[in-house]
Backbone:
């Protein structure tokens, strides 16, 4: 069944820490928005067994993926594997929102049948 959402209500910021607002959770895939005020950051972490897709909706910042820094700005799209160590920091002067999709990697048995 088709569903439609506006991202605007999910772009919600907090002075204390970054926010995470889940938009969809379907099967083994999740879509959400992360929101960062200047200076806020996402600590290094992994998402084993998934593919990670990140779309910068607004602002500028830096992804750190397996120790390599990548500057990003609005409309940039980044992909990384779930085994890669991922972090993000808003080192700009304005807020940043990231649209994130975590998609589970099919098992080899399933992928073989496609």
Residues:
């Amino acid at each position: 069944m088709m569903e439609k959402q506006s991202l605007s209500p999910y772009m919600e910021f907090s002075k204390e820490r970054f926010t995470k607002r889940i938009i969809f959770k379907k099967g083994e895939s999740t879509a959400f928005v992360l929101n960062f005020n200047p200076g806020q950051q996402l600590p290094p972490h992994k998402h084993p067994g998934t593919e990670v897709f990140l779309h910068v909706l607004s602002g500028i910042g830096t992804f750190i993926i397996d120790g390599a820094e990548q500057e990003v700005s609005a409309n940039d799209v980044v992909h990384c594997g779930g085994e890669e160590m991922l972090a993000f920091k808003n080192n700009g002067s304005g807020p940043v929102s990231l649209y994130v999709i975590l998609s589970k990697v099919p098992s080899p048995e399933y992928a073989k049948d496609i």
Q: What stands out?
A: The chain has a mean pLDDT of 93. The radius of gyration is 15 Å. The first helix runs from residue 108 to 112.
